[in-house]
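ok so i was messing around last nite and threw this chain in just to see what happens. nothing serious, just curious
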Amino acid sequence: MKYKILISLCMILISLSFATAVSITDVTSSPAEVVPGEIISITIEIENIFEEDITNLNVKLYLSEADVPFAPYQSSSEKFLDELDEGDEEDFKFKLITLPETPTGIYKIPVIITYDYKGENDTIEPGYKEELISITVNSEPELKVYLDDSVVLIKGRKNVFTLKIINSGLSDVKFLYIAPSDANGLKFLSEKEQYIGDIDSDDFDNVEYSVVVNMDAPDSINLPITLKFMDATNKEFTENTNLVLKTYSFKEAVELGLVEKPKILVPLIITLLVVAYIVYRILKKRKLKKKRK
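result:
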C-alpha cells in the first residue's frame, strides 16, 4: 500500500514538472507600437526547459476573443515544430494585421502551446501551456491649432479671439493644456494657461482669450503656443507651435471692410430733429408771450 502511494506521488511530481517543459523567454514585435490598419510582426522565443527532448511542438495565437482586434496576415496564427531538443530555443514568427477601427490601447493575446514527450515519457499525457503576450495599438497624436478666421484685432481696444484645437490623428488625447506665451503688443486679460481635457480622434475643441492690443503693436504679432497632453497609453507630450496674429488700426479695419463703418447718419438726424423741436417750442412760447402783451 505504501509503495502505491509513493508511486502515485512520484507520478504527480513528474506530471507537474512536465507541465513546465517549455517557457516563453522573449517576445518582440516590429513595430513596437502598431497603428490601426497596420501590419505587425511578432516573434515568440520558446525554450525547452525539460530534461529531455520534446516533439510535436505547436504554438497558437488565440485570436478569436471578441476583444482581440487582430487577424493573421499572409500566414497562419499557428506554428508547428517537429522536435525541440533539451535546453534549445526556437523562434516562432507571426504576422498580424490590426483591424482598422481598433481603439488605441494595450491588448492581451493568449498563446496556447502544446507538445509531446519523447523517449521514455511518450506514454504521458501531451503537454499544455497557456501564456499571454501583449500588443500596443497606438499612433502619434496630431494636434493642430488654428485662429478663428473671423477674428479682427483692433489696436488700442479690447479684443476677443478664439483658438480651435483639432485632433487630426488616429489616437485620442487627454489632459490637454494650452498656454500662449507673452507676445509683443498683447496684454492678456484672461488666464493664458487653459485646461481643455480630452479630444477624441477626428474631433476638436475651442478656447477663447481676451486681450488688449497696444496702439503701438506691430501689424503682425508672433504668438508662441505650448500644448501639453497625454496619449491613450499615458505617454506625455509637449508640443510648441506659432500663430501669426494680424492687427489693424480702426481706420484700416474700416477701409478694408473688416469692420462696419459707424452709422452716424441716423443718430445725427435724430439729434437735429430733437434740436429743431426744442427750437420750435422756444419760438412758439415767445410768440405766445408777445400776443398776451
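not much to say yet. The mean pLDDT is 85.
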